[in-house]
Design brief:
It is a single chain. This protein is an alpha/beta fold and about 210 residues long. The chain has eight helices and nine strands. The strands form two sheets. It has a five-stranded parallel β-sheet, with helices on both faces. α1 (about 20-30) packs across α7 and α5 (about 130-140) packs antiparallel against α6 (about 145-160).
């Protein structure tokens, strides 16, 4: 990680169930002196294993709109009937302290961040197959069946936006994905670049 310049903004997106949070948290935990999470705002209810100001900043829809109107949102989107957003002040504070910042958002949010901060590095996380994506969604047991079905319907269209990103990590084996992601963060991720013909062929096969 030391070969990467300080103060970079890394933007991650993925379909629900691709293992983005597990992968990104594994890397940030290993490099917590160099990387900082930006904790997102959300209007959804916290899950049983989530804590406010740790996993998300849980706010009411009224408070969310107040913050948005005050210019606090670097990006925001409505996803599955709830709002999510990135705190502009949080990101700017970390970058000013020469800390690299990690954002976990959706492809729409990544597009907004790219417009505001074009020097950011964008990374999309892919599952190894659509069948594996479905298995992961069902096995985690946090969503109702109808929610799972909606996530699966939306996943394919979300994944089609990989072409807008700088890098794609295929999260099949977590240890291998961590190695691939660390290479990207060090500026050595040529194999994961979306300009790599071999990777492009793999992604096209996953999407069918």
């Amino acid at each position: 990680m030391s070969s990467n310049k300080s103060g970079s903004l890394f933007v991650f997106a993925a379909p629900s169930g691709a293992g983005k949070t597990t992968l990104v948290h594994a890397v940030v935990t290993k490099h917590q002196e160099e990387l900082r999470f930006s904790i997102s705002y959300t209007t959804r209810e916290p899950r049983s294993n989530e804590a406010n100001a740790v996993d998300y900043l849980f706010v009411s829809e009224e408070e969310f709109m107040r913050l948005r109107d005050a210019g606090e949102m670097l990006e925001y989107a409505r996803v599955f009937d709830n709002y999510y957003a990135t705190s502009r002040s949080q990101v700017e504070t970390h970058l000013a302290e020469n800390r690299s910042v990690v954002l976990e958002i959706d492809w729409q949010g990544a597009e907004q961040v790219r417009e505001s901060m074009p020097d950011c590095v964008t990374i999309f996380i892919f599952p190894p197959s659509l069948a594996e994506l479905e298995r992961r969604l069902r096995d985690r047991g946090t969503d109702a069946p109808e929610v799972i079905e909606r996530r699966l319907r939306d996943a394919h269209s979300d994944m089609a936006h990989w072409v807008e990103f700088d890098y794609v990590i295929v999260n099949d084996n977590l240890d291998d994905a961590v190695i691939d992601l660390e290479a990207v963060l060090k500026g050595e991720g040529e194999a994961s670049s979306t300009s790599n013909p071999k990777l492009r062929k793999t992604l096209e096969q996953i999407l069918g």
